[in-house]
Write a structure and sequence with these properties.
Blueprint lengths: L1 E6 L2 E4 L4 E9 L3 E10 L6 E6 L5 E3 L7 E6 L4 E6 L8 E11 L2 E6 L3 E6 L1
Parallel strand pairs: 2-11
Antiparallel strand pairs: 1-3, 3-8, 4-5, 4-9, 5-6, 7-8, 9-10, 9-11
Amino acid sequence: QVQLVESGGGLVQAGGSLRLSCAASGSIFSINAMGWYRQAPGNERELVALITSGGTAMYGDSVKGRFTIFRDNAKNTVYLQMNSLKPEDTAVYYCNAQITVLMVPRDYWGQGTQVTVSS
């Protein structure tokens, strides 16, 4: 009943920028934290950035100063602005949201969007 739909991935050269979007839809009562994770081949899924409903953001060490997470609560959407991209940022990026549906909170995940950074 809840969907997270991501968009904005693609191929970019090193030093370039991309913006990812993730929109939540369905029978949503409330959304707490929203965030982005990524997984490269052979690696574990790792936190990229997280933002609370109040707007407090936190970042993984490897992206601090280059990526910015922000959200539009009216649109139930979270964004990830990625600047100064590096080849090591290449991964599938997954949106995550803590959503309460029918008074039950749980984690929801998007389907993932590929980001490829060429050197």
